[in-house]
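Data card: per-record layout.
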Amino acid sequence: MAQSSKVKVENVNHPGNSTRLDQVKYNAMKDAYMKVLPVAAPGLTVAEIRECLTDVLSQEVFPGGAKAGWWAKAVQLDLEAKGVVKREKTSPIRLYKA
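The structure for this 98-residue chain is written out next.
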């Protein structure tokens, strides 16, 4: 059986640690995430982002939004760790493109 490609992801909450996740699912979520994320502060809340993701997320990769919440969080934390996404210090947090 062929092994799926993996991508190395980081977590802003655990600097220096990384893990490897399915590349197809990661890229599909990252593409959707970057489409909905605003380019400036104050940004969107995590709940608002997840709501917007349902309109642009690949149904082929995430049929019916299955496991999309987990993948959205994994991609969010990775993009924050890599400096692609910034977090406003508000409650609830708001995110936007760096």
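Known properties of this structure: The radius of gyration is 13 Å. The chain has a mean pLDDT of 94.

See the next section for split statistics.
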